[in-house]
Prior knowledge:
The protein is of the alpha/beta class. The chain is built from 14 helices and 16 strands.
Amino acid sequence: MADISRRTFDENSPRLRVLIGADTFAPEINGAASFIARLAAGLVIRGHDVHIMAPSYDGRLGAIEEVHEGQRMTVHRVRSWRWYPHPTFRFLLPWRVKAESARILDLVKPDVIHFQSHIVVGRGLTIEGAKRGIRLIGTNHFMPENLLDHAIIIPPFLRRWAIRRAWAAADRSFSRAERVSTPTQKAAEYLEKNTSIRGVLAISCGIDAHNYVPSFDPADENLIVFLGRIVDEKQIDKLIRAFAKLSPELNAKLQIMGTGDQEHRLKTLASQLRVADRVRFEGRVTDEFIRDSLTKAKVFAMPSIAELQSISTMEAMASGLPIVAADAMALPHLVHDGENGFLFTPGNVDELAEKLTRVLTMPQDELERFKRESLSIVEAHDIQRTLNTFEALYRGEPV
Length: 399
């Protein structure tokens, strides 16, 4: 069987009309939304007609021409409602999604539907797409535990029941797909363990490493960077506690980029630990700001326990940064302990502080070795390989 991921893009191949279904999309900032924008932009560059079905965040509805990752595409914004326990999460009304999906499918008439979750949009598109005989490709970015932790209020005694129900819903939607993928092999095994889906493909979300600028000059300061949603499963409180344990002689600073429902609590924690003057909460930032921060940083920290891949970690690696990450889920796929960074036991604040100190006090030659290894490892996650593979799936070719 040919290695599709290494195939060169063929400009003479027939162009496709692709409809991507998204429960979360820009202006939301999260791994799934970033991947969808990057995937859509790459497909546009290759000449495909790309449409996205996604919630409206500002009240605008209907087919809107939008620019994402520098490319124009059509986004079909659908009326959504805010989930008030969460500061930004919006969702389509479940009892309206089938009608909205049918309307958009009949308008767009896509060759293929690529749905990015089963929660609401994916359910509607798979039901209506199957009726119309449209090829269905699914990608799972979802862990029920994450949703329950930061979006849904569930009493503890009902948690296990709710997780089972969530996986059962995922099973129903993904079972309608011709092929199913997740970002990593670990995530693929996780999905197969909790559903009846088999043959799940591990396809990296991919990044364009050329967008990031590594620096091998000595860093101006001991800057530690975190990038991601400010939510409970990211374990940012552990990072702040570890930061507070660092020697004052290091004069380290911690920069936290992202938004989420834990921001106020974490700011309070930083004040209580008397490090608020050295912890910067940047909130929602531009891509240019992110790239500049990653270039200037000395180490990237990812304490999360629920990463199915971690695009932000890959962005840091493409910026030539050593990584200190929790030894959990997919992070060990990216962080090779003692080679491009260090893994620590999830939740162990003392160990996290010790690993951060090791990077911050490294001799320059050893630091450069770690930086080059990050660049080497992230090469396997080139977005062009990801695009090649999904193009093959869209056309029904074997992968």
